[in-house]
Amino acid sequence: MVYLRPTMTAPVPAELALDRRTALPEDYTFLLMDHPRPTWEGHPNNGQWCQFWLARHNMFREFGEGLTDACKKLLAGEVEPKGFHEWFMTRVSFFLGELDTHHKIEEYHYFPLLTRSDARIGKGVDLLESDHHIIHELLRGAYDTIVALDGAIQEKPNEVMGLVPRMHDDLAALDVGLQRHLNDEEDLIVPLILERSEADLGMA
């Protein structure tokens, strides 16, 4: 599970690192005041690509929260390891795989497209790519724990409960970073789409 990611074009200010920021500064979200979140739904420039992209983000949010909650239930003895295993493994594999694919499509196609379309978004794209590197490392850590937990449930049941707290913490850390990233990514990109339209940006 080792993927090559594009090299970032500029360093990210330390105060804007994914684990430190609570929102993007106004000079990054330069169109958000003109296009605040309550105006997104139903906007004439909120086209098929934007709607699909936002739906994927919401799916990732739901998966992150649901998987972490499942670990809590296993720790609390509310579910049996076998039932947890059957429910969890399919969903967590889908979640991690789809998240990595989603990021690669953004990095190799949509981020360069947006930067070429409007240079003002360049430093924001650098920040998002920095987020992707951090999230990828969190994803890899979670994957390693998933492999260990999968093996324990199938072959070493006495080790299962010792791995569940680590699984919970790995997924919780991934979810926290991902939630911050998704919110900021949307605040940066959606207002630009609403301002210019998907066709004008070459996204339609």
Helix proportion range: 55-70%
Q: Mind describing the biggest β-sheet?
A: none
Total helical elements: 5
The CATH architecture of the domain at 61-201: Up-down Bundle
**SSE order:** HHHHH
What is the mean predicted local confidence, pLDDT? 92
Which residues sit in consecutive blocks of at least 5 with pLDDT less than 50? 1-8
Distance between the termini: 31 Å
CATH top-level class of the domain at 61-201: Mainly Alpha
Which helices and strands, and how do they pair?
Blueprint: H1 48-75, H2 81-117, H3 122-155, H4 160-196, H5 198-201
Walk me through what this model shows.
- The protein has 204 residues and is mainly alpha-helical.
- Helix 1 packs antiparallel against helix 2 and helix 1 (48-75) runs antiparallel to helix 4.
- The protein has a domain at 61-201: Four Helix Bundle (Hemerythrin (Met), subunit A), CATH 1.20.120.
- 69% of the residues lie in helices and 0% in strands.
- Residues 1-8 have low confidence and may be disordered.
- The chain is built from five helices and no strands.
Quick overview of this protein structure:
69% of the residues lie in helices and 0% in strands.
